[in-house]
Amino acid sequence: MLKEFALGLGDSEVNISLPEEQVIHVVEGKHADAITDVPAAVKAVLNNPIDSPPLKEVVKAGDTVAIIASDITRQWIKYDQFLPTLLNELNAAGVPDSNIKLVVSLGAHRHHTDKENVLVYGQEVVNRVQIVQSYAPASEDFTHVGKTSRGVEVYLNKHVVNADKVIMTGGIVYHLMAGFGGGRKAIIPGIAGYSSIQGNHSFCLHDVVGQGISSSCISGKLEGNNMHEDMTEMAEMLKPAFLLNAVFTPEGKFARFVAGHWHTAWLEGTKTVEEIFGVPISAKADLVIASAGGFPKDINLYQGSKTTDNAYMAAKEDGVIIVLLECRDIMEPPDFSGWFNYETLYDREVALRKAFTVPGFIALKTGIMASKVPFIIVTLPENKDFIEKAGLIAATTIEEAMAIAEQKLGRKDYTITVMPHAANTVPLLQG
């Protein structure tokens, strides 16, 4: 008995029929109802927060307030839909717009243009409050606030440190290094200095040079995740007054807002992310067939790395992975594709230890995963050279990919896991 699957590739779908008895899992996110009245939902959590008095009791009349907000790389957070409500509640508590600064948590990303501020935060917010940008390499904008137990010197943005009250905002999703996004990531890398970011992110690499990456810094893992624990210490030094984070549906609409204590409210949000996007599996499969879900999630290999990472978590050590990634902009972004110019994984790792970047880390991880399990990428014919340079196997059709996979597995009685939206769904091996 054959089972049909339609998998996204760019703007189209690829159909594949698989023997039903061999398919052990179909990894899909759970349905989540979208919030219909966003301002009302935000107001409700600000007035009934987790582990904290309501926002109107946390701030007092005349306070200066710094709101930390994510940059354009997190445009999916849809700030324009909820920041006005947050500002209105601060006004109602006696904090005028003139006392509020919106701090763009660029980390080491480039500055926003004025137009991008409007695009990300909305015209109303841009008109109402002062916007300052925290750009990690501008060392004069940062002040020393302490040192973590792991030895990282902590430099944070002066605008944030000098505010009477700090409110952290963001979106919570799975994160392939920090376990989950949101929460303390507003502080580090968000508004931290460059050396602090480098020091913290280096925990994603193995303690021993040449051993690649740390096995503790992975999607969904918080306990024992050095990077996350170091981040949490850094955030604690700032003593943030309040947090407002959003969790999303598989379609990218608001599923839940959490507010209150900067750490415990966020932790509550991570549980919702796990409920929606964490999919229990009872066993790993010989063959994993994964799609990012089509464009724009498969616009390039960098965006596709969320898919390859999640697919890897569902495959046996001697298995094979097929990933559908159109990659119409295969060479974008250059700060990712350039890392594949290193001759060996060792050279890539050494360069990364000298100057850590997230694209560099993802390039290293991609290479390490591909050295352990064959990745067959169904992509555009013109991408063949780059895909192979990255250590992956290129195929132009699902049929070609299946033929290569069967040849590598060397048998017909293999188990299969299908991941139709693998960019968002994380397989969680039970037991």
Automatic annotation (TrEMBL):
Q: Looking at the Swiss-Prot or TrEMBL record, what is one Pfam family this protein matches?
A: LarA_C
Record domain LarA-like N-terminal: where:
10-205
Q: Name one GO molecular function term.
A: lactate racemase activity
- Segments passing through the bilayer: none
Q: Where is the Lactate racemase C-terminal domain?
A: 283-422
Q: Which NCBIfam families match?
A: Ni_dep_LarA
Q: What is this protein called?
A: Nickel-dependent lactate racemase
What is the species listed in this Swiss-Prot or TrEMBL entry?
Sporomusa malonica
